Every structure is written in structure tokens, then in C-alpha cells.
Amino acid sequence: MKYENQLTPQGNALILHQMFPSEIPKLLGYIEDVCITIQEDAERNRKVWNNERLTFEQWLKGVQRVQSKITYYRTALCKSAHFFSSSLFNDNTAIVSHYCLNLYVTTMIQPNPQFTQLVQMLHNKWIGQIEQAPEYITHAENYPDQWVCLCGNQAESDGFYSCNEKGDQIEPIEGEWDELYICMRCGRIIDQRNLQVTGYNPHPKPLED
Ligand SMILES: [Zn+2]
């Protein structure tokens, strides 16, 4: 099938819109409702948030973006598959739209089984993609040594400690240490040469005396 070759979330969303344009208005209404509910329950949702890859604030920002796109550009989103895919499935919004799409086909009874099938297929493919994509932490602008982990941790808050490939703390001794650090807040293991996250250990062993 043609859509087998489409790999990006935007490409997938484009196909969905092109194949099922008549489903889009109802879908947008649903996504908008979900976004409103999430924001109304923000305090409760924040307390139970346990996603390692994303902070609750990042998630909430994405939810607000998706909702305002739908509220202000509903007609254009229904009309244009390109506008739909580029607005609701870009880096900032894809995770929210995918969450809503999946909820839509798993909790609502859909009149069109082909639509449901395509959404599920695209969703599974997307989950596969994000699980394979490497993660990188960032650093303060112009200060490559001032790391900022994806969880928000920095050297002056919980800090980063030298560790082995399992995440257990070790002394940074040449020949024994492979330039890895562990984030003491979230447990991500970071390669200092390229800031790539190479592993995860939420309960690292501390240094032995
Ligand atoms: Zn971290």
C-alpha cells in the first residue's frame, strides 16, 4: 500500500486526512474536547504524571497548542490535509495529537472500521519510531559544559555524576571510565562526548568508600 512508505508523523497524518476527509471534522471536535479536559484537570494530571521522556509542563504546552490551532483554524484544518498534518503533527504537537487519535479509536465506537484500522497502524508505527529515536540532553546557550537534562536537572541542582555503562557511580579514572555521567534526578545515562542518552537507571549505586 502507498502509505507504507510514509514514515514521518506528518506524512502519516497527511495520508489519514487524504483518505478520510469526511472523518476530520468529528475527529477535530474530539481532540479539542480532550485538550480542554486535560487542561481543566491540570492539577490532578500533574500529580500523577510519570512520563520519563517529557515533563508535564511540556505536555501541557503541547495540549494548549493543539487546542488553540483547532479553535482558531478549524475550517482550514478540515479543508487542507497539508495544513492539518503540518499544524497538528509537528515536533511540538504530534505527541498530543497521537495521544488523542489513539484514544479516539480505542474508546469511541467508530462508524468506519477502515479509518480505525489506519489510525491504529499509524499509531503503532509512530510509537515504534519514538522508541528508536536517540535522545540527547542539551546545554545552556553558549555554555557547552552547563548541561540541562531532558528532565530539567542541571549541575547546580541535583547534578550529574560519573558512572559506568549501567549507571552506577564510579570515579572518572582514565582507562576505567567511559566518559559517562548519570543524571541524579531522572537516571538518564549521558555520554559527555555527544550528550546522547545511552541508558537509564533510576536507582544507581552510589560510590563505594
Ligand atoms: Zn535527567
Task: Summarize the topology.
Elements: H1 9-19, H2 24-40, H3 42-48, H4 56-79, H5 81-88, H6 94-107, H7 113-132, E1 138-140, E2 143-148, E3 160-163, E4 180-183, E5 188-191, E6 196-200
Antiparallel strand pairs: 1-2, 3-4, 4-5, 5-6
Helix pairs in contact: 1-5, 1-7, 2-4, 2-6, 4-5, 4-6, 6-7
The chain binds zinc ion (ZN).
Describe, in plain words, how this protein is organized in 3D.
The chain is an alpha+beta fold and 209 residues long. The chain is 48% helix and 12% strand. It has seven helices and six strands. The protein has a four-stranded antiparallel beta sheet, with no helix packed on it. Strands 1-2 form a two-stranded antiparallel ribbon. The termini are far apart. The N terminus is likely disordered. Bound molecules: zinc ion. The site of zinc ion has 8 residues, from loops.
Query: Main sheet: which strands, in order across?
Result: 3-4-5-6
Strand residues, percent:
5-15%
User: Gap between N and C termini, in Å?
Assistant: 61 Å
Low-confidence parts, pLDDT < 50 over ≥5 residues? 1-6
Structure summary:
The protein is an alpha+beta fold and 209 residues long. The protein contains 7 helices and 6 strands.
Descriptive terms for the model:
209 residues; two-stranded antiparallel sheet; 48% helix; disordered N terminus; binds zinc ion
